[in-house]
Amino acid sequence: MSQLILTNSQVRKIILHAAGLAKTAPFGKGREAVYKLIDHLGFVQLDTNYVIERAHHHAIATRVPDYKPEWLEELQADGRIFEFFISDSGFIPMHDFRFSLPVKQGFIARRKPLEQAEINLMNKVLDRITREGPLMVKDFDNDRQQASSGWWDWRPSKMALERLYLDGRLMTTRTKDFHKVYDLPMNIIPDDIDTTMPTPEEYARHVILRTMGSLGIAYAKELAWRARWVKNNLVKKEVEKLADEGRLCRVTINGLKSAPLYMLPGYKNKKIELSGDAFILSPFDTLNVFRHRLRDFFNFDYQIECFVPEPKRKYGYFSLPVLIGDTFVARMDSKADRKQGELIIHNLHFEPVKLTKPMINKFADAIRAFAEFNQCETITVKKSNDKSALKAIRNVL
């Protein structure tokens, strides 16, 4: 079982190339570039936090500079992408639909036995949507007035809708203000899409190869995470089989003692040049989701602190990692004040990295573009740990 030995610099290039962050606009521009990006990554994580523009829009705009949020809605309306909860909630290419079926089966298998009243309500909700067409939670407000004591204290009708969504009897689209619209799969899935259940082996291999395509280099635990809702999945077994078949390469990294690492063979002799561009990233970006990867490969210890009690926060509520080239250079705790048209950077924390003048210029350009993306005309930086670096940024801005 031969292994490739890579330097940390090579690993970073591979990871950034796979993530679509080796250069600006790697998939081109326009609506088609959005589809190419989602198809390449296989999954763009969705998040509801609206302190700045939501995570899925943020991740796409980072890679498609002229991105317009309505393009995502149009791709859903055209039946080219769909939303579902795989490892997390996100947008997926429609041609991968059949590989959501084992996850739906997994949700059913994990579900506690339902009371007859809950089953009756689910049937009632499903019947209404069958008869009336797409409906939202608000359309069921008068079903029963008491709130659920269960999942996030949802109303029973909301619980019923989400159970039907997770087990596959309903699908969703989104309104412009991000509310879910529930509909029957037959009204959303195009006729030419394969809807057959994959075998456990097919499913595991799909998860592995799809996830490898977006991570570049990965541990088995990261690949298995994408299948975490499927009971007794074969991901870890199939990883070794794929490596033995030559469809994955086993990799070690100079100076890093770690669990086994894997890479797609296409990266063996691939020459990757980084543009050195600056990217302000979402905390839920595919590059940032697995925090241990940032520590292992980028020497960057990152945690999103909106889930941390305020007295324990070091960098701020919604701190955004800033990447230039292959180095994380800063964190921006940011908020978009949409009424005032102001991007507020509560804390611009610089990492212990020397910033050259070209890096400062690119960072400033990225802040400017980020403000525009968030519909803000002015930029205010309230605090920083490096006054000279902040002054240089302000001079360019």
Largest sheet: 5 strands, mixed
Can you tell me the number of structural domains?
A: 3
C-alpha Rg (nearest Å):
22 Å
Categorize the overall geometry: globular
Which strand order does the major sheet show? 10-11-12-13-14
Q: What amount of the residues lies in strands?
A: 15-25%
Find the structural class using helix and strand composition: alpha+beta
Number of helices: 13
Query: On the 0-100 scale, what is the average pLDDT?
Result: 94
The ordered string of helix (H) and strand (E) elements is EHHEHHEEHHHEEHEHHEEEHEEEHEH
| Assembly category | single chain
Number of strands: 14
Report the end-to-end length measured between terminal Cα atoms: 53 Å
Structure description:
This protein is α+β, with helices and mostly antiparallel strands and 397 residues long. It folds into three domains: 4-98 and 195-267, no CATH class; 109-187, Winged helix-like DNA-binding domain superfamily/Winged helix DNA-binding domain (Arc Repressor Mutant, subunit A), CATH 1.10.10; 303-396, Aminopeptidase, CATH 3.40.630. The protein has 13 helices and 14 strands. The protein has helices at residues 8-18, 31-41, 55-63, 70-77, 101-110, 116-132, 156-166, 200-215, 220-225, 235-245, 291-298, 357-373, 387-396, and strands at 4-6, 44-45, 81-85, 89-93, 171-174, 180-183, 217-219, 249-253, 256-263, 278-280, 319-324, 327-337, 342-350, 378-381. Strand 13, helix 12 and strand 14 (378-381) form a beta-alpha-beta unit. The N and C termini lie far apart (53 Å).
